[in-house]
Amino acid sequence: MRKILRIGAVSFFLLLAVAAVGLLCAWWGASHVPDFYDQALKAEPERLAEAGDKLEENILDLRNDSLDEGVWRATFTDEQINGWLAVDLPDKFPKTLPPQLKDPRVAIEPNLAHVAARYESPQLTTIVSLAVEVRLTDQPNELAIRIRQARAGMLPVPLSEWLDRVSAAAENGGIPLRWIEQEGDPVAIVTVPLEDKHHRDHLLRLTQIDLQDGALVVAGVTETISPENQRAGEGADELRYSRSNQATQR
User: Fold this and answer.
1) Planar angle of CA 90, 94, 95, nearest 5 degrees
2) 143 contact partners, CB below 8 Å, separation of at least 6
3) Count of CB atoms within 10 A of residue 39's CB?
4) Side-chain-facing half-sphere of 135: CA atoms under 13 Å
């Protein structure tokens, strides 16, 4: 009997040790901070403000360029985006993010963007991060945003709840969005409107969206259309789109 009790006691403490190690690993994994996020949070406030202002300036320039007929192009660095996220987002759009998410930051590398934010709840504080790809589809002005990885610290995160929240936010914002799957990864399909609601005689075509080293590059072409062309139908519209792409490539 004493031997059985001894074996039972040893087994119990072994199980307790395994559980403790498991909890320790889970805690360490959840508390892990991605290097890019740690570096982004160390940026000086003055530099962040300047970078955010530069992003808004670039966006305004792009907006003005897109109002004129012809080709346009813009580059937004991850430093500019992070400056805007740090300074302008909480000041100008304080209710954009759920209250549990704080201090979002990005890092951009060729063909891949990393997005992270601090997640705080009564049960857990961690850094949630996503790795995403962005590309144009073969449909006019349609973007495919593929989520390659989602983590809390170093631990994988189930995405179903977050995808539902993204869909709800897109619906509330009037953004056309649907989900498909590619090799097990969720892909958001988003359509950018062809028409400018303030300039009904213009069509805005996206012809390029690239993730490069430290920057997002966006390019397109603006066409001025006549009422006759507006009534010409989808076939003529697709022909104009093809010609616009050829002009941009040249």
Assistant:
1) 145
2) 134, 135, 136, 137, 188, 189, 190, 191, 192, 206, 209
3) 13
4) 9
Dump strand ranges (E) for the chain.
Answer: 70-77, 101-109, 112-120, 125-136, 142-152, 155-156, 177-182, 185-191, 195-196, 199-212, 215-224
Alpha-carbon span 250 to 246, nearest angstrom: 6
For residue 154, give both structure tokens.
């170093």
Residue partners of 221: CB distance under 8 A and separation at least 6:
70, 71, 72, 204, 205, 207, 244, 245, 247, 248
200-223 in b/e form (b: 16+ CB < 10 A) is eebbbbbbebbbeeebbebbbbbb
Contacts 24+ apart (CB under 8 A), 176-183: 182/146
* N residues, the chain: 250
What is this structure's pTM? 0.76
Question: One digit per residue, pLDDT tens: the chain, 250 residues?
Answer: 444 334 444 444 444 333 333 333 444 455 678 899 999 999 999 999 999 999 999 999 998 998 889 999 999 999 999 999 999 999 998 887 888 889 999 999 999 999 999 888 887 788 888 899 999 999 999 999 999 888 888 788 777 767 887 888 778 777 788 999 999 899 999 988 776 665 567 888 999 999 999 999 999 999 887 655 555 444 444 444 444 444 444 4
Instruction: List the beta bridge partners of residue 160.
Output: none
